[in-house]
Amino acid sequence: MTTNLTLNNGVTMPALGFGVFQTPPDVTAQAVAEALRTGYRLIDTAAAYANERGVGEAIAASGLDRQEVFIETKIWISDYGHDATSHAFDKSAGKLGVDQIDLLILHQPLPSRFDLTLEAYRALETLLADGKVRAIGVSNFMPDHLDALLKQATVVPAVNQVEVHPYFTQQAVQTADAAHGVITQAWSPIGGITSYRGTGTTSTFGDPTIGEIAKAHGKTPAQVMIRWHLQEGRSAIPKSVNPTRIAENFDVFDFELTATELTALDALDTGVRGGPEPADITLETFGRDIPEA
Ligand code: NDP
Prior knowledge:
Elements: E1 4-6, E2 12-14, E3 18-19, H1 25-38, E4 42-44, H2 52-61, E5 70-75, H3 82-96, E6 101-106, H4 114-129, E7 133-139, H5 143-152, E8 159-163, H6 171-179, E9 183-187, H7 192-196, H8 208-217, H9 221-231, E10 235-236, H10 243-248, H11 259-266, H12 283-286
Parallel strand pairs: 3-4, 4-5, 5-6, 6-7, 7-8, 8-9, 9-10
Antiparallel strand pairs: 1-2
The protein binds NADPH dihydro-nicotinamide-adenine-dinucleotide phosphate.
């Protein structure tokens, strides 16, 4: 088991990272500082989370060398288009306070305006060629979106960040990613979306199978789910604003799930997506202005 993944362009990325979706801007620096103290070296944010500034502040104040922290952020759909996406890099880099972003990804495919999605990706390819970013990728791309992109792209995305937790495993997406050498990165890796968007009775945290496996290892359900991602070769980016849970989610390197346990976790898939259907994302319904740096 390694704690690093090698992307398809040779760049090394920590497999386990820290997410900040829904982390309020005024507590983001504090949460990220706690994560960096704990040992996380990959931080996942997005222009649309409105907290890139807090991420940058925590990294600058951490005392860590810039090269020691892998920064990932996402371009929002309102900034798709060649010039708009180039400028979106400047906005994100400015808020993060860095010259170079380690991994820059398109937050969503825009199926109704795939022409804009392709232009945005071309801008990422240019940023990569210019050394402004070390790797580029996508998020929420279903296999048909990936195929359509690959027909036009010159650079294969390094990463596809998609919803993956035991209740929604997206096997078809994982298979398509692997076939093209794209690393699948799990968002809502511990099924946060099943509790903050769910009914409360179907949360992964209360699942009996996950609970039993956790008990067998003297670990928590969250730790079991994170371990499942790592052992199956995915990157995972759990989010927390709570120091105890930030530490808990990183304390996953002292146990190993068996093949039977991995299979039991795979079998919990319900096929029910927690997040929005990627095909339904439109500029009209999800567009929003991303402020200047
Ligand atoms: P997670 O699966 O990471 O779960 C986070 C939720 O679970 C929070 O409510 C958190 O609350 C709680 N939690 C954290 N740790 C534990 C624990 N050990 N035990 C019990 N509860 C816990 O869900 P997210 O949706 O936040 O996904 C993680 C990251 O993925 C995001 O932060 C973001 O970076 C990315 N993401 C990307 C998306 C995309 O479209 N590309 C969409 C959604 C997420 P608390 O903070 O109080 O601990």
